[in-house]
Amino acid sequence: MSDNLTFNLTTSTPNIQTAEVLPDEAVQHERVIIIGSGPAGLTAALYTARAQLNPLVIAGHELGGQVSLTYEIENYPGFPEGLSGQELVELMKRQAERFGARIKMFSAVSEVDFSHGSPFTVKTDDNGVYLADTVIVTVGATPRHLNVPGEKELTGNGVSYCATCDGFFFRDKRVVVVGGGDSALEEALFLTRFASRVDIVHRRDQLRAGQMLQKRTFENEKIHFIWNTVVERINGSSGKVESVLLRNVETSEITEYPTDGVFIFIGHDPNSDLFDGQLERDAFGYVVTDREMRTNIDGVFAAGEIQDRVYRQVATSVGQGTAAAMSAERWLAAREG
Ligand code: NAP
């Protein structure tokens, strides 16, 4: 690896206990770099910090990622009254920092090179260049798009993927929510705080969401369901949504349905393109790990939604972050004898 380095290695700091975050093109040598700052990443930071590994978390441009956009989390143990995603992320960050984790905010990883083995090269979009003995990848997933006409053009002008961010703008307005999973129902319930009417458009006549959420949704007077239906097009002018073109998948009937906003919650895709050709991925793009959160690259681990297509809960991401951190710690200890 070092044969190919063109940057100045003399600036790397062997004393890992006092390493600083360097802003520019200096190279910094870290024992553990955690990419991503969601529940998996911040938990991995907590565990590796407590193991005296002085981890550096490259947080991305939004601390907490997707979870920080969740209005209320009711199923994370230890918080019987529930709390917001932002609150939970802030608490996790503080806890990791208390034990020495360093969180590099407003910076995202732009390039990695795992091809030569440890130490791995990690570059950030603010010209940071790092060498890392181990890397824990926790970059999560991104909301899926419908890919229908009007969606892209009207995103931010009535089309949204985040009720917590944009619900406020729909006070006394009508909104359509697309999807039938936990996210769609949870966000539809949240939107009833503002909107006068919420129509959930679902492509089947059965919901994927959990029973408890279904019950709460059916009981809410503001929420209505449009079953067996897909959105074909989103119409708008002067920078705002005016209607959606709906198609009944059983009858093929097309209807133009007036609405002021469209909230899309139809699942997620893993943010794994950055690792294309380096980390093994499954047919859906999720990074493949074993039970110890090891990837196909010795010394690189992954945790959270980047590698979990099945559970995708805050609680499971936290568990996976724990396992990845412990595996990374053991991997370093074994290597260092
Ligand atoms: P999801 O469970 O995959 O549900 C996606 C929904 O969108 C499904 O109902 C699906 O329909 C529909 N859909 C997918 N592609 C579509 C398309 N192109 N057009 C129209 N509809 C489409 O995704 P999610 O709701 O984001 O949840 C993801 C994971 O996070 C799940 O494991 C969920 O349990 C978890 N989650 C948990 C909570 C919580 O516990 N508080 C909250 C949010 C999410 P079909 O049903 O027909 O496939």
Overview features:
single chain; 337 residues; alpha/beta; FAD/NAD(P)-binding domain; 2 domains; 7 helices; 17 strands; 26% strand; elongated; disordered N terminus; binds NADP nicotinamide-adenine-dinucleotide phosphate
Supply the number of structural domains.
Answer: 2
- H/I helix tally: 7
Assigned CATH class of the largest domain: Alpha Beta
Q: Which ligands are bound?
A: NADP nicotinamide-adenine-dinucleotide phosphate
The proportion of residues forming helix, as a percent range, comes to: 10-25%
CATH fold field value of the largest domain: FAD/NAD(P)-binding domain
Quick take:
This protein has 337 residues and is of the alpha/beta class. It has seven helices and 17 strands.
Q: Secondary structure elements and their pairing?
A:
Layout (H helix, E strand, L loop, with lengths): L26 E9 L3 H12 L5 E3 L26 H14 L3 E3 L4 E5 L6 E5 L4 E9 L3 E3 L7 H4 L4 E2 L2 H4 L7 E5 L3 H10 L5 E5 L9 H9 L3 E4 L2 E9 L2 E9 L5 E5 L2 E4 L3 E3 L29 E3 L11 H22 L2
Parallel strand pairs: 1-2, 1-6, 2-3, 6-17, 8-15, 9-10, 9-15, 10-11
Antiparallel strand pairs: 4-5, 5-6, 7-16, 12-13, 13-14
Helix pairs in contact: 1-2, 1-7, 5-6
The protein binds NADP nicotinamide-adenine-dinucleotide phosphate.
Tell me what you see in this structure.
- With 337 residues, this protein is of the alpha/beta class.
- It is 22% helix and 26% strand.
- The chain has helices at 39-50, 85-98, 151-154, 163-166, 182-191, 211-219, 314-335; strands at residues 27-35, 56-58, 102-104, 109-113, 120-124, 129-137, 141-143, 159-160, 174-178, 197-201, 223-226, 229-237, 240-248, 254-258, 261-264, 268-270, 300-302.
- Strands 1, 2, 3, 4, 5, 6 and 17 form a seven-stranded mixed beta sheet that branches.
- A hairpin with a 6-residue loop joins strand 4 (109-113) and strand 5 (120-124).
- The structure holds NADP nicotinamide-adenine-dinucleotide phosphate.
- NADP nicotinamide-adenine-dinucleotide phosphate is lined by residues 75, 146, 178-184, 186, 203-204, 208, 230, 265-268, 312-313.
